[in-house]
Every structure is written in structure tokens, then in C-alpha cells.
């Protein structure tokens, strides 16, 4: 089983990916959050900062992701990124936000297979990189994904990742395993399942429902339980060691943001996002967590976090 870490905008940036690899590992590729294609944006170090070699541990496999519907812009940016040493570039046709879909980008392009074909004609015409796709079952209806797959099958893609929801479902409601199975059966490329694997039991369930699927992408589940990938790969970390590993991971992220963000408010807002995930498996004094989430002062934050970790217990 190959495991991929899902891109989560604002969270799984380079420092997070590096720290995740260092403390938890068991991920075969880390998909970076999308970079939007735009005519006006110059290809600069600022645009590509999350992918710069100096920010990314060279021992981990990172896949950059682009979002947009213009094949020429994709090709130009993908070429520039490939020159930085990346050989797979992922195209995001799964983003469900109305501001994106309304412009026929992300999942908004799924009802238009002809646009996808036109895009891929250009995007796949450069041999300096390989293209993979991250998609949803459809925008409104899984039938849409089947028409898209007929188009995808005509191109030399290096993989198709499917989040088993429609765009309209956003991130809620049930994943549709039957629709995923139908889509996976029609796909000629290496397929990856994504969606709602948040526990080892969820993983076992998906594995038994989809026995032919050999690649899995983990998102929110791995952010809440970063030990999940290693458990899936058969390495069991003793529960009593987990809090101290999470603490080291947290400290790496905190130290990074402390050097990057100006002002304690930005820093604490960022750390709050991390806690939204980490709190799931940590049994703690909830009053401390509340104080951490309200705190706008970094030395007070550190004190509260130390108190929390000193008394916390990992819950499987
Ligand atoms: C806050 C947030 C940001 C996300 N950002 C991206 C992104 O940049 N690119 C992308 O392809 N998917 C993005 N996703 C979707 C995830 O990669 C993943 O497909 C989705 O969360 C379902 O998997 P999960 O249930 O394992 O989390 C995002 C999801 C969330 C919740």
C-alpha cells in the first residue's frame, strides 16, 4: 500500500511536511497545497516559495499542485517547477469552493470534459514533467466523473486521485464508495482513493470494500492522528511515547512560525489551526486548550502548551 499526504491549504506547507516526515514518516509522497494559475502572476520565488529546494527536505517526495483551467499557464508554470527538480505536477480538479467552481476551475470544470481535453492537450505536451490529477466524483453528479475519466484515459497521466465525494458535498456527507468503485473500474491509470480515512478501522473498512486499490491519500485523519500512516504500514508506536513525539512535532512547527510570522496574533492564529487537528486524539484539560486558543502572547502560549503536554494522554 502506498500512502500519500493530502494537500491541505494553509497547513501542509513545507515546514509541516518536513516535520511530519521527521517525526512520523510512512508517507510515500506529500502533495503540496495548490498554487493558482493566473495570467497576472509572474513566476517568481515568492509564488513558488513553498517549493523552493531550501525549504524542502530533499529526502522527501513532494508533488506540487496547480489549480486553474488554462493549459498554457499550466504548462509554463509546470515547466518552471520541473526545473526546480520536481517530476510530477498535480492538476487540482476537485476544489469545491463556489468562488473557484463558478469560474470553471477545480471541481467546476468536471461538467466540461471538452475543456479538460483542451487543457490536457497543452498541459501534457511537455516531456519535462508528468501530470497527475486530483479530482472529485463530479461537481453535482458522479455521472460527470465517468465522462471525465473517458478523457483522462486518452492521456499519459501518472496517476488519478479521487476524493470520493461530489464538489457540491464540499467536505461533509458520506463518501460514495460505490461511485468510486465504478469510476476506478473505468480508469486506465494508477488510481488513489481519498476521503474520510480518519482511523485505522476506517482504513480496514475501505481496504475491504476496495481490495484492488493500492494507493491511499490521507488528509484530515493524518493531521489529527499523524501516527495513522505508520500504523497502516504495520509499525506500531507505543501509546505512551506518542505525546512526546507530538510535542517535538508541535515545537518544530511553532519554532518555524515564530521566525516567519510577524506578530503574536498571527502566530497564535496559526497554532490554533494546528490544535484544531491535534486536539482530536489528545486527552487534556479542556480549559487549557480554551486558553491556548484565546492566547495572543507567545510566551504565555508556550507556558500553556507546556502545561498541556505535561498532563496530556494520547487516546487511540
Ligand atoms: C482546509 C482544507 C484545505 C484543503 N486544501 C486542498 C488543496 O490545496 N488542494 C487539494 O487538492 N485539496 C485540498 N483539500 C482537500 C484534501 O486534500 C482532501 O482531498 C480532503 O480533505 C478529503 O480527504 P480527507 O477526508 O482524508 O481529509 C483541502 C481540504 C481542507 C479541509
TrEMBL record:
A Gene Ontology molecular function term of the record: tRNA dihydrouridine synthase activity
E.C. designation(s): 1.3.1.-
The keyword Nuclease belongs to this UniProt entry's keyword annotation: no
Record keywords, A-Z: Flavoprotein, FMN, Nucleotide-binding, Oxidoreductase, tRNA processing
InterPro entries: Aldolase_TIM, DUS-like_FMN-bd, DUS_fam
Enzyme class: oxidoreductase
Domain DUS-like FMN-binding: 5-298
Active site residues per record: 95
Needed cofactors: FMN
The keyword NAD appears for this protein: no
Pfam families (alphabetical): Dus
Binding site for FMN: 65, 134, 163, 219-220
Family under the similarity heading: Belongs to the dus family.
Function: Catalyzes the synthesis of 5,6-dihydrouridine (D), a modified base found in the D-loop of most tRNAs, via the reduction of the C5-C6 double bond in target uridines.
Name of the featured protein: tRNA-dihydrouridine synthase
